[in-house]
């Protein structure tokens, strides 16, 4: 059974246990295991699915994640949506309800909505981490990944001055970006079907303000889970197994 086939199996499948055990052992041997709670099966499966159950590549991704969190406490120590609610209410960020043709989650960041007088770059980037932690709990996202659109309309010198070299390095560790010019509507159609995108981006999906508000509500709904992740990112997360993680998700045909 290849990695793609393994990725389709449910978390409790017996065939996945050997891979989980191998990754846990490799992490312990590499010194990547936490001092607190052990690495949970669910936590390790996120990295295995992201790398098609290649244990060596999964270990590299896992160690990078743990290192990034350890080196970035100013971002990762507080994952409270309520603490950045004013920024979220500015329609700064959304996870679109429709996945793309590959099954990937689609994220939008509207940088021009960030008021640098009110919100530090660390608070802004914390929003990305909250979203990443929540959607990475979705099995389908573990399998299909995510894509992000960074809308730089309204980007100014004031924004640029907020990004110091240290923060830029931390951001670059987790992002890879396609750049588009002013005619981004036609460019985006090369990457996303119009039914995925809001009308403001040349699509037929829900408007961007609606999408941002829906995602803000989702983050607030998972505030307790995010507080658990901030305290113990490698442990089991207590959530309701019968409730869909993202309640308004729509799947592409």
UniProtKB/TrEMBL annotation:
Query: What InterPro entries has UniProt attached to this entry?
Result: CRAL-TRIO_dom, CRAL-TRIO_dom_sf, CRAL/TRIO_N_dom, CRAL/TRIO_N_dom_sf
* Entry annotated with the keyword Transferase: no
Recorded GO molecular functions are:
lipid binding
Q: Name one Pfam family in it.
A: CRAL_TRIO
Q: Which domain of life is it from?
A: Eukaryota
Query: Does this UniProt record's set of keywords contain Metal-binding?
Result: no
Name of this chain's protein: Alpha tocopherol transfer protein
